[in-house]
Write a structure and sequence with these properties.
By secondary structure, the chain is mainly β. The radius of gyration is 13 Å and the shape is globular. It starts with a strand and ends with a strand. The chain contains no helices and eleven strands. Strands 2, 4, 5, 6, 9, 10 and 11 form a seven-stranded mixed beta sheet that branches. A four-stranded antiparallel beta sheet has the order 1-3-8-7, with no helix packed on it.
Length: about 120
């Protein structure tokens, strides 16, 4: 089992920045692929970005590429999402998720609200 706790959400003006954190416990962090997803009101949950297990390669959705950065600190068992140049369309509940190596995302955090005002 993996437990995930997100933090760092809040209200920010368009063009501003926020950093989300996801603290993991329960399994060797370096063996986990860690991802960020988001769900806006009335929309399906969508992939934002991820950091793969092992070397930590990162991948992003096109909508956030160049504005968001996923990073991880294996010593702290924590993943981060640095969000810059935020837009009102980025408003959503952001979820942290974990997959064991190349498996599916089986573990999810409780979510943290990000609201971007225009």
């Amino acid at each position: 089992q993996v437990q995930l706790v997100e933090s760092g959400g809040g209200l920010v003006q368009a063009g501003g920045s926020l950093r989300l954190s996801c603290a993991a416990s329960g399994r060797t962090f370096s063996s986990l692929t860690m991802g960020w997803f988001r769900q806006a009101p009335g929309k399906e949950r969508e992939f934002v970005g991820e950091s793969r297990w092992g070397g930590g390669s990162t991948y992003y959705a096109e909508s956030v590429k160049g504005r968001f950065t996923v990073s991880r600190d294996n010593a702290k068992n924590t993943m981060y999402l640095q969000m810059d140049s935020l837009k009102p369309d980025d408003t959503a509940v952001y979820y942290c998720a974990a997959a064991y190596r190349n498996g599916g995302y089986d573990y999810w955090g409780q979510g943290t609200q990000v609201t971007v005002s225009s």
